[in-house]
Predict the structure.
Amino acid sequence: MNDSLTRDLPTEADTSALGAALARSVPQHVARALRVALRGELGAGKTTLVRGFLCEWGVRGAVRSPSYALLEWYEVDVRRALHIDLYRLLDPEEVQALGLRDYDAPSTVWLIEWPERAAGTLGEADLTIALEAGEAGHRAVLSASSPEGRAWMRSIE
Ligand SMILES: Nc1ncnc2c1ncn2[C@@H]1O[C@H](COP(=O)(O)OP(=O)(O)OP(=O)(O)O)[C@@H](O)[C@H]1O
Ligand SMILES: [Mg+2]
C-alpha cells in the first residue's frame, strides 16, 4: 500500500494550495481531533500551509504564528482548528499545561508545527507533512498513520 505522497511546491501559493486542499477534505465523523504533524526546518513553509488551510475554511484576517502562546484556536461554524507551534516549548511536560485534552473532540483539526518537541505527548499524527526548502525548491512529503489519515491523503491525490 502506498502510504506516502510527494508534492513539489514551486511557489508559496503551492504550499497554501496544499493546505487548502486538506481543508476541503477533512475526514468527517471522527470521534476525536485529527492530528496533522507539520515537520520541517525554519522557513520550510509550515505556517504558510496552515494559513492556506484556514483561509479555505473562511478564516479572515491575520493568522498569527502562535510561537509565544503556543496555540491559537479557530472556530468556523461547527468546525474547529487548533494551530499549535511548539518551537518555544522547553520541555515536553509543558504540553500538559496547554489543556489539549479539552480540544480532543470531533470536527477538530490540530495543525502542529514542531511536533517533535512534544516527544509523543500529543498522540500519534493521522497525517505527517514533512516540508523542505531544498535547492530545487520547496517540497512536501505526506505520510499517513491512521485509516483517517490515509483517506485524507488519498482525497488530495
Ligand atoms: N513553496 C514555497 N516556495 C517558496 N517560498 C515559500 C514556499 N512556501 C513558503 N514559502 C516562504 O517561506 C517563508 C517561510 O515560511 P513559513 O513561515 O511558512 O515557514 P515555517 O516552516 O512556518 O517556519 P518556522 O519554523 O520559522 O515557523 C515565507 O516567506 C514563505 O512565504
Ligand atoms: Mg511557522
Notes: The pocket of magnesium ion (ligand 2) is lined by residues 46-47, 65, 85, 113 (CB under 6 Å). The two ends are 14 Å apart (CA to CA).
